Amino acid sequence: MIVESNKRYMSVIRSSAVRRQQGLSLIEILVTLVVVSIGLLGLVSLQFLSMRNANNAFYRQQATFLAEDMLDRIRANSTQTYNVTAGATGSLCTGSCSTAAIRDHDIAEWKTSINTTFPDNGAGVVTFDAVNNIYTITVSWNAIDAVGGTGASLTSSTNSNSFTLKARAYQ
């Protein structure tokens, strides 16, 4: 008898335990889905930041190249003083050109390269410090960063960046 009552008691315990666990696996699956979703959103955000930083690094490398290009032009035409403001434009020279015309040609080509490389408000400025014989070449551009939202509802902000190169002029 005792064995039968124990069996009956154990079956009651098992059936009540089974009733309490019904739906528990569904809750575990929902919690797992939430955790995996948050992890995937983090990975998407990390990928977005990686792409943005790669783009900014590319622009910085291009600005470095353009500043060094202008410095090479200045050194090749060392008899002329290059002072380029943000709004300055040069003129293209064809045929036989004076050193002043070559300077204007260099400025025009450099400005065109900046506008081609940085389509969103790129600018270049060159100043010459005659006392110390130093050229300061600055290339600036606006990097667009997406902020907030998802998908097509991204808004953007503009970050101004610049690269400055200082070098002694050969005379």
Distance between the termini: 115 Å
Low-confidence stretches: 147-155
Q: How many individual helices? A: 3
DSSP strand tally: 3
Query: Into which percent range does the helicity of residues fall?
Result: 40-55%
Q: Which structural class matches the secondary elements?
A: alpha+beta
Instruction: Write down the secondary-structure element order.
Output: HHHEEE
- What share of residues are in beta strands? 15-25%
- Count of distinct structural domains: 1
The largest beta-sheet arranges its strands as 1-2-3
Oligomer: single chain
How is the main sheet built?
3 strands, antiparallel
Shape: rod-shaped
| Mean of residue pLDDT values | 80
